[in-house]
Amino acid sequence: MTKIAIIGFGVVGSGVYEVIRTNATQITRTCNSPIDIKYILDIRDFSNHPESHLFVNDVNTIANDDEVSIVVETMGGLEPANTFSRLMLSKGKTVITSNKELVATYGDELFALACENGCAYYYEASVGGGIPIIRPLRTCLAANRIDAVYGILNGTTNYILTRMFQANVSFEAALKEAQEKGYAEKDPTADVDGFDTGKKICILSSMINGKKINHEDVHTEGIRSITLADTEFASAFGYSIKLIGSCKRAGEKFEVVVAPMLVSKDSQLSGIDDVFNGVMVSGNMLGDALFYGRGAGKLPTASAVVADVIDAAKNAGRPYFAPWSKADENVLVDYDNIKASMYVCVKANSKEDLEAYVSANFSDSTKVIFSGDYAAFITDCAPIKEIKQKLAGIPASVCNTLMVL
Ligand code: HSE
Predict the structure, then answer these.
(1) Which 3 state secondary structure label does DSSP give 8?
(2) Residue 134 CA, ligand 1 centroid: distance in Å
(3) Residue burial 266-283, b: 16+ Cβ < 10 Å; e: rest
(4) Is the backbone of residue 3 left (phi > 0), alpha (psi -120 to 50) or beta?
(5) Terminus of the chain with fewer CB atoms < 10 Å: N or C?
(6) Rounded to the nearest 5°, which phi and psi values hold at 68?
(7) Quick check: 91 and 71 in contact, CB under 8 A?
(8) In which element (H, E) is residue 4 found?
């Protein structure tokens, strides 16, 4: 019997309880022994809960109970999750988390603390919700050098962009819909400005690098700038627009970017719509593999947390190795030096002047599409700083520039 505690009984924490109760028979068979929830920590009143006897409000009740070997942290945010996780790890208790902010910010320190204390720190649910991506990278793909990992890591923005493309709904209206459906928060900043995706891609990038890649150092753009003119032009060129978190190996360095990008309709990522997530991984032996599914939501995310609990219970006492350590040098390629094709949308007074400038400055194959006062084209692949320099002299006002994946 493995005794566990859940700290934080919100959406994911209550989902963990539900998954363990609903699938108890199967979990016991997989683990070869039952998982027993001994405590649930939450400061709110759960006296009407059918198992109200499980609820405690002092973290030390859990920390000081030697019977509890695994603690599930589903609080979210940095504090007090960080302090509580360190307390549990320092007591030799394995911690399982869904908290991307904590893993992206202090993962290196928490892994080291787990190693020092003979326990482990698991984080499958921190990226891609219920989609398996962390464990495949650590185990199934371990014989590969991972050259790229990129994809749609945020369900809320994918829903908004899907509505803009499929129903011609403006960004503001699609955001309101996403809020009404409970996907987007009242303050949608973390999702729509790309910070949520930034933390997730940095977790994956740090795994590939073996050293921390700091989300604050990564070029991050959100989707607020996308207009219905952009969706119309992108469709005309044969693309959709997706918020992409991307990490590509470039020699000893990495190109890590979070931005809305044009994704060719030929790419499998282009057809991933609504709140679904999709992560493409390129290994030097395997080639490409796509991981697709529900990247958020109570039970999908909780199922990934409980999978970690099962793994931890089965591997109790085995040596644990930190997936990454602290950064000792900056391995990021400067955004301006990344080579890319860029989609450019402009408002032009003279069609002829614009076409002459584009054909003189970009390759002959660059086609300009016009629609009312607006025009758009896709540049050839060049360092972003060169594209920016050429755009500085364009006889039109630039409305938007987006990378092409
Ligand atoms: N807000 C996130 C999303 C939840 O929309 O994908 C999962 O991290």
Answers:
(1) coil
(2) 16
(3) ebebbebbebbbbbbbbb
(4) beta
(5) N
(6) -80, 115
(7) no
(8) strand 2-7
CA distances from 57 to 14, 54, 90, 330 (A): 16, 10, 20, 42
Looking at the CA of residue 183, tell me the nearest atom of ligand 1. 5
Residue with tokens 């390129």: 282
Annotation marks residue 3 as catalytic: no
Spacing, Cα 159 to ligand 1 middle (Å): 11
Closest CA to 97 of 118, 71, 79: 71
Instruction: Specify the amino acid at residue 184.
Output: A
Say if residues 311 and 135 touch (Cβ distance below 8 Å): yes
Closest alpha carbon to 120 in 96, 149, 145, 144: 96
**Residue recorded with tokens 């795994």:** 207
Pairing label, strands 94-97, 121-122: parallel
- What is the block-wise mean pLDDT of the chain (405 residues), using blocks of 10 residues? 97 97 96 95 96 97 98 96 98 97 98 97 96 95 97 96 97 95 91 98 97 97 97 97 98 97 97 96 97 92 96 93 92 97 94 92 84 93 95 95 97
CA of 72 from ligand 1 middle (Å) equals 19
Distance CA 161, CA 228 (A): 10
